Amino acid sequence: MNSILRSGNDELLSYLWYSTLNLNKRMNKVVKDAKEAIEGITSGMTLMVGGFGLCGIPENCISALVDLGANNLTCISNNAGVDDFGLGLLLQQKQIKKMISSYVGENDEFERQMLSGELEVDLIPQGSLAERCRAGGAGIPAFFTPAGYGTEVAFGKEVRYFDGKPHILESALHADFALVKAWKGDRFGNLIFKGTARNFNPVMAMAGKITVVEVEHLVEPDELDPNTIHLPGVFVQRIFEGKNYEKRIEQRTVRPVE
Amino acid sequence: MLDRNGIAQRIAQELQDGWYVNLGIGIPTLVANYIPKGISVEFQSENGLLGMGPFPFDGEEDADLINAGKQTVTMLPGGSIFDSSLSFAMIRGKHVQLTVLGAMEVADNGDIANWKIPGKMVKGMGGAMDLVASADNIIVAMAHTNKRGQSKLLRQCTLPLTGVKCVKKVVTNMAVMDITPDGFKLLERAPGVSVEDIKNATEGRLVVEGEIPEMQL
Question: Based on the structure, what is the number of domains in chain B?
Fold first, then answer.
């Protein structure tokens, strides 16, 4: 850093450098609550929503979306929640026009809307879904994968052989907003996830034009060890501390005491 | 005939020391209960964990720790957690040595169908398409026939495919079979099941060579 300070306009550079040493003058992405965090979401937008099943879903943002009432939404999310929780709440209110998911299993309302044609559904392999989000955030417009070759997932997609094996071309996904849940975060947007609540959250955070994060614990910047950050704050635009987490368990499974 | 646990127990005999293994929902999950003595394997769950342990004791469930079937699980020492993209990098990159999954239909060329019944049931493929397209070693665990008594081992799948020419072995309640260029090669019979029973319950090409031993469980 010394060499940079000595080059060019010494006075200006050292002033800038000095001001960044003052934590309070540096970035602050904190917003008050979920309502403020989702400001700007309007009908017809494409949203990414993190989580796997009900694990690691942005509960506060979803509630705020129900209140907001925006509709005709395209939601990119591995699942669609259950009938009365998670994205199921938006389905009930008919706010979703199209779902892009890999598994919709345990949601009767979803299955009903899909089979009746009310809801457009694009089902894609889970690994391709994750990689398409990652690619969107990483500036990779498309990639080849073997997943789905020879199935209806491959319809209309370019096929190319690598090492004698067929692959299909999958394109990157982007979203107007990505709604993400993390365990801990600071005002720079640096994030740490907990357990399998990580799942799609980091890759979706990368792919949102505006990435909104709700955390269980909003901490001071120097509380997070830079070596343990799962997702750097550069991908995050807004962050807030969520409240009243329900953290529903879909399949409570226990073993008997021996 | 085997029950669900019997199928899982027989598949567990295929495990090799040092393997990373992905178990699908249903019968495959039960394989973890029958790891042979002296063998060490690590279980991968595609929602983002390695070193998956047994279900938690009552009261110790953690909503932030589930498997791909959304069941509460525990982690073993030496386990790790990662995001969905890295999880499928492991799978696509062939770092996971064995995949065990269920199926609605398997064809004698190794095609598999397990995610959709047009107009009736659409659950989605989840991670199954990525798993079957990439794993070198894929074992299907399922009943030999469906609820109406019709064979699930077919000349050609009738349902939308999950993957093509990918299944290597099928273990059912009646038999163990390898997929070969000539069709299902019968390797073992379930206790109390005759070769004739298996022939009658198999619509696809079945190769029977010599004496077929009974499974040892």
Answer: 1
